[in-house]
Amino acid sequence: QEGGLTIHMPEIFISYRREDSLSATGRLAEKLVQQFGAAQVFRDLDAIEAGTNFERAILDAVSAASVMLVMIGRTWVDARARDGSRRLQQPDDFVRREIETALTANIPVVPVLVEGASMPAGDALPASLQPFALRQALELSETRWAYDCSRLTTLLQNAYGIEPVFAHAPVTLATSSASAEPMREVFIPAI
Predict the structure, then answer these.
(1) 79, 20 in Cβ contact below 8 A?
(2) Which of 12, 26, 95, 168 is least enclosed by beta carbons within 10 angstroms?
(3) How far is CA 142 from CA 25, 30, 113, 180, in A?
(4) Pairing, β 168-173 against β 184-189
(5) How far is 61 from 89, CA to CA, in rounded Å?
(6) pTM of the model
(7) Per residue in 82-136, pLDDT tens?
(8) Closest among 87, 89, 116, 128 to 21, alpha carbons compared
């Protein structure tokens, strides 16, 4: 609660590096929003308003999430800071802090491998992230994108209890020309 108001936090938190998996993350976020609704999906580019303390917004969203999806591309583990050091080795790296926060809070963390990436070995991670290396990963490949996304959304529903939303599409029912009753729109839930 903030100022007496209840604030709804998204159930799905997406952690990613922009320079590593921005495109795949955007595609997945769109799919998750279609399946679960925008209110259930946190991706920093979409969820944080200008002027907001982004550090607090990110850590609050992680702490309130039901599950974290960590997008891992081919350069995720070796992403470098300006000084040339590996970003994951820096305690203030946001991806590291997001995962540490989720692990500490016992929030399920699902590695999502994209663009041919493989799961990083535990010894390639700082000590605080080594439990992450033991998580079962799910791959999203270009050749099986729809199938893999379906597997992920099923996992989110069945394992983590995240409920899908169903879009309503208008369907026009025609009547015979002899009828005096005009055509009307009826909403039928999409399946």
Answers:
(1) yes
(2) 168
(3) 13, 15, 11, 53
(4) antiparallel
(5) 23
(6) 0.82
(7) 999 999 999 999 999 999 999 999 999 999 999 999 999 999 999 999 999 999 9
(8) 116
- Summarised one tens digit per residue, pLDDT across range 65-85 is 999 999 999 999 999 999 999
Query: What spatial distance separates the first Cα and last Cα of the chain, rounded to whole Å?
Result: 35
Q: Evaluate whether 117 touches 76 at the Cβ level (below 8 Å).
A: yes
Residue 8: phi, psi to the nearest 5? Answer: -85, 130
Q: Is 176 helix (H, G, I), strand (E, B) or coil?
A: coil
Q: What are the structure tokens assigned to 133, written together? A: 């290396």
Which H or E run includes 184?
strand 184-189
As given in the structure block, the two tokens for residue 102 are 């989720």
DSSP string, 30-61: HHHHHHH-GGGEE-HHHH--TTS-HHHHHHHH
61 by Cβ neighbours in 10 Å (0-12 / 13-18 / 19+) ranks as buried
